[in-house]
Design goal:
By secondary structure, this protein is of the alpha+beta class. It has helices at residues 15-34, 42-62, 115-121, 127-130, 176-185, 189-202, and strands spanning 5-8, 11-12, 70-71, 73-81, 86-93, 98-101, 106-108, 152-158, 163-167, 211-216, 224-226.
Length: 227
């Protein structure tokens, strides 16, 4: 994570394979972003996703013990920053969610790619039912699952005090009002992330919980902060 971007990846395909897939995904995305001399744009994001997908696919093909591994990816990059506003490109593959905690509302930025979410979008089940449906563990898109990967992009603007919250799906033992309350009450992005992890673990999360929070600060010199 940096002040200008954050990445979340959660493994699928068994414990060992999933952890490895997530590690490869993060490593490849970070290497691609850190190699950029100038601003990170949509082309750089696409390159990072393609590079991560190819690396996971290659490892699957070369190691039968992790042949079913894959990983989610949620990535946010700042495409423009000034004192009044920062503009972000958010992409996701899989079901690691992101939310915008704005001054006026708390809203989901990403579309989840799992069976429960597909049923919810089709009107078969409600969002509350999707949170506990067994299909929430069956991702329908992932890094490494196919030779080509399709991402869902979203554009988000942050103003002073507003925040972008990214997490693995283990955080969703908390509902959105609970997540918003924790983020709104935290004095910093770092503290918001720590409190969200603590709250999810206290609520008996059975999946791993990883959280990154990006906050647009009040001054130009410190326009972005996160953890």
């Amino acid at each position: 994570m940096s002040p200008r971007w954050a990445v979340i990846s959660d493994g699928a395909g068994g414990y060992a394979g999933g952890a490895l897939a997530a590690e490869i995904t993060v490593r490849e995305v970070v290497a691609c972003l850190e190699a950029r001399d100038g601003a990170i744009d949509a082309a750089a994001v696409s390159q990072a996703v393609t590079r991560a997908n190819a690396a996971v696919c290659a490892r699957r093909a070369s190691d039968a013990s992790v042949a079913a591994m894959a990983a989610t990816l949620t990535l946010a990059v700042a495409t423009a920053v000034n004192a009044e506003e920062s503009r972000w490109l958010v992409i996701n593959v899989g079901d690691s969610p992101a939310w915008l905690a704005a001054s006026y509302a708390f809203s989901r930025v990403t579309e989840e790619h799992n069976m429960a979410a597909e049923l919810m979008r089709a009107g078969v089940i409600s969002r509350d039912a999707a949170r506990v449906h067994p299909g929430r563990h069956l991702v329908t898109r992932a890094i490494g699952a196919a030779d080509a990967v399709v991402v869902d992009p979203a554009r988000v603007a942050l103003h002073p005090g507003e925040q972008l919250v990214m997490a693995s799906d283990g955080l969703e033992v908390l509902d959105e009002p609970q997540i918003h309350d924790v983020v709104r009450g935290a004095p910093s992005a770092h503290e918001a992330a720590r409190r969200l992890v603590d709250a999810a673990l206290a609520d008996d999360a059975t999946d791993n919980v990883t959280v990154a929070v990006l906050r647009h600060l009040q001054t130009f010199d410190d326009a972005l902060a996160g953890w």
